Fold this sequence. Notes:
The protein has 10 helices and 6 strands. The protein has 227 residues and is an alpha/beta fold. A 6-stranded parallel β-sheet has the order 3-2-1-4-5-6, with helices on both faces. The longest helix is centred in the first third of the chain and has 15 residues, at 27-41.
Amino acid sequence: MDDRIAPPRLKYRLVIFDFDGTLADSFPFFQSVYNGLADKHGLKRIEGDQVALMRSMGTREIMRYIGMPAWKMPVVAKSFIGLMSENAASIALFDGVADTLLALADAGVELAVVSSNSEQNVRRVLGAQLGSLFSHFECGMSVFGKASRIRKVVKQRQVGAGDALYVGDQGTDAEACAKAGVAFGAVAWGYAPAETLRAHRPAEEFESVSAMLAICAAAGAALNTPG
Length: 227
């Protein structure tokens, strides 16, 4: 008779993360360079309380508001990614991200990233230790092109769609999850307000970074939430 106790089954075997606004606190940097990008690419400048107004908008609504046609989006994104590459050292992860990623990996959760930012920027901000925790990076696509990349990661990691969770901070992340057939986890600390993301009916809501530990593990799993 085998007296060994089987480990608790994880609620999600694979957790795929968005990067900007989910793992990395890059919005202050974006704000600092946006008006320069706007002037360069002929977009509307954003001043003062307009930022708060825009946070409740969807991505397509924001594009209309600043006068950015779809064809111009890749060009603007390339400019932003280049600026971020030059300033990666000034961009920090959200408090608690490092401890939470380490604990999830220790618990047997497989980690991946699907981000419209570049893999180089993602790896630089994560650093070598945290970057080594991720089995897969899919980067550099349009914010509207994440669904196919999420499906690709799920397929390559040989995980059922029902065992995968994508964690993000915008409505486009929720839309990508719906198309890819995976659960969406909405974070409360990113770009879009929690109430905006709630309209997408996320499978999980994370009020804090450390909350991801309890929700990503099945009930009864002995995980310590980092303080």
